[in-house]
Structure formats: structure tokens, C-alpha cells
């Protein structure tokens, strides 16, 4: 059974679009990337899954249960880290974490100390005195404290220095090894690349593609770089499957998806001085979706 | 239970401060009572010089002001106003604090039903005003007995004192309802003050013009102390209105908040 099933989820804030039509599924133990630029609808999707928002249409199930009707029950096994974390000022870190722990059936207070140590977090400090990055660490501990079966991270790495980011990813991999599925929303592709098994690409409130990282890269997408002997024009590249075409004098680059033979036939008609056909990086594929 | 205790911890200091201030105010005003009582004649003459409308508006009864209970009927008006401000602030802030502090995301992604969160918060606010009211009533009795040797009409006196509690409950409910309907209330004090003073003024105007129907629009007129002095009881229709308003406000708050979208911070 899928851990998460999102079915044609739609959310409007009055007349403003949050998401238009979002569907995807997540399997147990999967690290699932959710990528798209700001405003594409990542947070709206996540907040609806968490029952903070009520869907306009469509539905989502987590652990096989409707995410709105069974929200409290589902939350027992969900950890959530928002992009910006806010906690009660005036509380100490340890008080906040114990308060958070007090909501779960599982006694997880014993995990506070080792997790805080792993992230180099001072438990005795007041929340008001923490820097943005340190607040984030409180958020991380809070999100994984109760060993949830599903961890939902909404642009989680902002504010963490590279070292902390690495430790954070280690913690996530540990939780994943123990069986937790992770939904990782981000607009930073390199981190999705590092961590995720599959990704969904969201654009203007719709999922445009769901695939494994490997498949996205190998999915016939080629990056083609050409150098022609005489300056050429865009009109010379009408072959179907060409995208992101740029022509600058005698330098030409584009992304190509389709039959390699047809590509080579087209290229052979040109008078070339140099050619390179390479695997595009994820960033370039991503940009391709957004043209 | 954990939310309830957490809320109590948050409002502990604030409630204590209100209690101390209220008791200090009570003590101060009751200390003035012997002066009033001794100069009863002068006081009556002075009050008689006030325009009739003004006297009715503020609801003092001249003959009554010389007994401790009568004096209290006049003092209570102002304490009830303070109590209403405290209660309304509490009612608003238990909910709006989560939005303005952006902690709603945290709280509402815990494994608890929204209704449970609401109930815990409402109970915490009610607990705070119950403690405040209980101490206010007890201290009123104490202060009254220290300034007079004459017997006090305890039944009427207590009814008067407890109007403070009922109005606090009503204003907690109103604040709670407002906090549920309006997503972000940053300035809790000004809103609580202006609402309560607004209601109070409606009562004053209604009193001055003797428009009894208008009394229903001002919760402060639901527990009319002048009438209480004359008839030894509050008017049933007003008490029922108070109860209805309180219940309706709470029900509305639940209805709205359970369906509300919690937008990103």
C-alpha cells in the first residue's frame, strides 16, 4: 500500500490559485523529492496534506486514511519541518521539545538529548535567543523526535550551514533506513539529487512529471553543444524534440529528447567544426520544464 | 491536558497581575467608603446636583450610596469593566497568539483534533477568569467587612459580586469568537478595550435615554445593580440573554475555527 496518495488535489484561496491539480503517490521507505520554484504550490500541497488547509477539490490519503478526517491519528506518525520555524518565545529549547513530545503516544523524550548532540544544539537556551539556523535545528529535532513513519520537509535546508546540512541529511538517511518515508520539497535541485529516489516536478499548481532521478537524467534527454563553421540561425533546428535552443554566432546548445538517429541525421547536414552530446544535469532538465 | 497546562503557564503571571490590581483597587475604594458614609448628607446633596440623566446613565442610586452594599453597587460598575477587558483579552489572545506568533503550524500539526485544542484553550481562559473572579468576590466581601460594622445584605452583595464572574465568562466567549473569526489580531489590548468600552457606552447612553430595549445590546446592563438593590434579583430576560450570547459566541468560535484554513506564516 502506498504511504501517500494524492488524488487531483485542488486548493484555491478565494480566487487565487494555490494548486490546480496535484496527484502523486509515495511508497513506504521512499525519499520523494518535490521540486518547483516559489509559488508553484509545494507548500499548499503539503499544508493540505497536514490538514492545515482544506482542499477545494480532490483528496489525499496518508497511511490509507483521509488526511483531513483522520488528521490527528495520522499526525501520530508524521513529522513536519516547515521552511521557517516559529516556536513559543520565552520557552527554553528543552521545554519546547518536551511539550512537543508530550503529544505523542510514544515516549520519545529519551531521544531529545542524542539528537540535540548530533546537531550541536544547546537545550538550555531560550528560543528567543536562538539564531535562525539554531531554530531550524530545534525544528529538525521536533520533526523526527517521535520516529515518524512519514517525514514531511518543506524547503528544510534554508539557514543551515553546509556542515549542518550534511549532518541533517545523515539523520534523514538514518531515519529512512529505519523505514521512514520522506517527502522533501525544495527548489534546490542539488540537494534533491543527493537525497531523493524519485521526484515530482510541480509547475503552476500542476504536477508535470514524476520520475526517478536516474530516469529524468537518462530519459532520452541529451544536451547537445555544437560549433558550426559559419554562423547559423535558429531556423536550422526545427527537429521535433529540441528545446531550450540558443544560437550565438556559431555556438549552438539545446536539450534534445527523441530518436538519436534523427538527431544525427539533422546534425550531419550541418557543417560542424565541433560537437558534444552529454547528459544534462538535473538543473537543466528542470529549466526545460519551466520554459 | 498538556495544552491546557501549557496555556495556564503562559497566562499565570498576567492573571496574577490582574488579581493583585483588582484587589488593590477594591481596597482603595472601600477605604473611601467611611468618608462617603460619614458625609452622607453632603454626598446626597452633591449627587442631587448632578443632572438626573447622568445619574441614571452611570447607574447610581443616591439613597443607596450610604450603605456598604449600595456603595458597592456603584463601585462594581468600574470593576466589571476592568474584568471584562481582562476576560476579552484572554479570550482573543488564546487563539490569536498562535497566529501572530506563527506557532499555529506547530500546534495544529501535533496529533490532536482542532476541537481538542480549542477546548483546552477555552478551558484555560475560563480557569483564569474563574480564579480571578473567585478572588475578586472573596476580596470584595473581605474589604466590605473591614470598613463597616453594620450588617451587610450578603445575598444582594454576593449577587452583585458574582456579576463580575458572569460578565467575565461572557467576554471570554466574545473574545474567543473574535479570535476564531479574525485570523490575525496583533493589538489585543486596544481591541479588547474599545469593544468593552463601546458596549459600556451603549449602556450609558441607553441608561441616560432610558431606552430599555437598548439594554440588550450592552452586556453591562444584563446585570443591573440598581435594579438588584430594589428587587434583590437580576431580571430573568437579561440573565437568559447573557447565557445565550455566551453560548452562541463559543459555538460560533468552534464552527469557524474547525473549518479555518491556517495560511503559511
Description of the structure:
With 291 residues, chain A is α/β, with parallel strands linked by helices. Chain A is built from 10 helices and 14 strands. In chain A, the strands form 3 sheets. A 6-stranded mixed β-sheet of chain A has the order 6-7-8-3-9-10, with helices on both faces. In chain A, strands 2-1-4-5 form a 4-stranded antiparallel β-sheet, covered by helices on one side. In chain A, strands 12-13-11-14 form a 4-stranded antiparallel β-sheet, with helices on both faces. In chain A, β7, α6 and β8 form a beta-alpha-beta unit. Chain A is elongated and about 70 Å long. The mean pLDDT of chain A is 90. Chain B has helices at 2-38, 40-49, 52-58, 68-100, 104-108, 114-147, 154-181, 188-208, 225-231, 236-259. Chain B has one domain. The chains are: A alpha/beta (291), B mainly alpha (265). Chain A binds chain B through residues 13, 43, 47, 50-54, 71-76, 78, 80, 82, 84-89, 99-100, 102-105, 142, and chain B through 2, 6, 10, 101-106, 108-113, 116, 259, 261-265.
Amino acid at each position: 500500500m502506498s504511504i501517500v496518495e494524492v488524488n487531483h488535489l485542488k486548493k484555491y484561496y478565494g480566487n487565487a490559485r494555490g494548486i490546480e491539480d496535484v496527484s502523486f503517490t509515495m511508497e513506504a521507505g521512499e525519499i520523494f523529492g518535490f521540486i518547483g520554484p516559489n509559488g508553484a504550490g509545494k507548500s499548499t500541497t503539503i499544508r493540505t496534506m497536514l490538514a492545515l488547509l482544506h482542499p477545494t477539490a480532490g483528496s489525499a490519503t496518508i497511511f490509507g486514511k483521509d488526511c483531513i478526517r483522520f488528521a490527528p491519528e495520522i499526525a501520530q506518525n508524521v513529522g513536519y519541518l516547515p521552511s521557517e520555524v516559529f516556536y513559543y518565545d520565552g520557552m527554553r529549547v528543552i521545554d519546547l521539545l518536551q511539550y512537543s513530545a508530550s503529544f505523542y503516544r510514544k515516549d520519545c523524550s529519551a531521544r531529545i538529548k542524542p539528537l540535540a548532540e548530533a546537531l550541536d544544539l544547546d537545550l538550555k537556551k531560550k528560543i528567543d535567543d536562538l539564531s535562525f539556523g539554531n531554530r531550524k535545528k530545534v525544528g529538525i529535532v521536533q520533526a523526527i523526535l517521535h520516529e515518524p513513519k512519514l517525514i514531511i520537509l518543506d524547503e528544510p535546508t534554508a539557514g543551515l550551514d553546509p556542515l549542518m546540512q550534511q549532518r541533517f541529511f545523515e539523520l534523514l538517511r538514518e531515519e529512512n533506513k529505519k523505514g521512514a518515508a520522506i517527502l522533501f520539497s525544495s527548489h534546490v535541485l542539488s540537494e534533491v539529487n543527493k537525497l531523493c529516489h524519485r521526484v515530482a516536478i510541480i509547475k503552476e499548481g500542476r504536477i508535470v512529471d514524476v520520475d526517478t532521478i536516474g530516469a529524468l537524467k537518462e530519459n532520452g534527454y541529451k544536451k547537445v553543444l555544437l560549433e558550426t563553421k559559419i554562423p547559423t540561425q535558429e531556423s536550422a533546428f526545427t527537429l521535433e524534440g529540441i528545446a531550450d535552443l540558443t544560437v550565438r554566432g556559431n555556438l549552438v546548445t539545446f536539450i534534445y529528447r527523441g530518436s538519436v538517429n534523427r538527431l544525427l541525421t539533422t546534425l550531419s547536414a550541418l557543417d560542424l567544426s565541433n560537437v558534444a552530446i552529454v547528459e544534462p544535469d538535473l538543473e537543466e532538465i528542470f529549466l526545460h520544464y519551466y520554459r | 491536558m498538556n495544552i491546557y497546562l501549557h496555556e495556564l503557564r503562559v497566562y499565570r503571571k498576567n492573571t496574577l497581575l490582574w488579581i493583585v490590581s483588582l484587589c488593590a483597587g477594591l481596597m482603595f475604594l472601600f477605604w473611601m467608603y467611611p468618608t462617603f458614609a460619614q458625609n452622607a448628607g453632603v454626598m446626597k446633596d452633591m449627587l442631587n446636583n448632578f443632572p438626573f440623566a447622568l445619574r441614571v446613565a452611570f447607574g447610581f442610586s443616591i439613597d443607596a450610596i450610604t450603605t456598604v452594599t449600595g456603595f458597592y453597587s456603584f463601585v462594581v460598575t468600574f470593576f466589571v469593566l476592568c474584568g471584562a477587558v481582562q476576560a476579552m483579552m484572554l479570550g482573543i489572545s488564546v487563539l490569536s497568539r498562535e497566529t501572530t506568533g506563527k506557532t499555529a503550524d506547530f500546534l495544529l500539526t501535533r496529533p490532536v483534533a482542532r476541537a481538542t485544542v480549542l477546548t483546552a484553550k477555552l478551558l484555560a481562559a475560563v480557569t483564569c477568569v474563574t480564579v480571578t473572579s473567585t478572588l475578586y468576590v472573596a476580596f470584595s466581601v473581605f474589604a466590605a467587612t473591614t470598613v463597616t460594622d453594620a450588617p451587610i445584605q450578603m445575598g444582594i452583595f454576593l449577587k452583585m459580586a458574582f456579576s463580575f464572574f458572569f460578565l467575565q465568562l461572557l467576554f471570554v466567549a466574545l473574545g474567543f469568537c473574535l479570535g476564531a473569526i479574525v485570523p490575525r489580531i496583533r493589538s489585543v489590548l486596544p481591541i479588547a478595550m474599545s469593544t468593552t468600552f463601546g458596549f459600556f457606552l451603549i449602556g450609558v447612553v441607553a441608561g441616560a435615554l432610558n431606552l430599555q430595549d437598548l439594554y440588550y445590546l450592552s452586556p453591562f446592563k444584563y446585570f443591573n445593580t440598581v435594579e438588584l438593590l430594589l428587587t434583590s434579583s437580576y431580571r430573568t430576560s437579561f440573565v437568559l440573554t447573557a447565557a445565550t450570547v455566551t453560548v452562541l459566541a463559543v459555538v460560533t468560535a468552534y464552527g469557524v475555527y474547525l473549518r479555518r484554513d491556517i495560511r503559511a506564516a
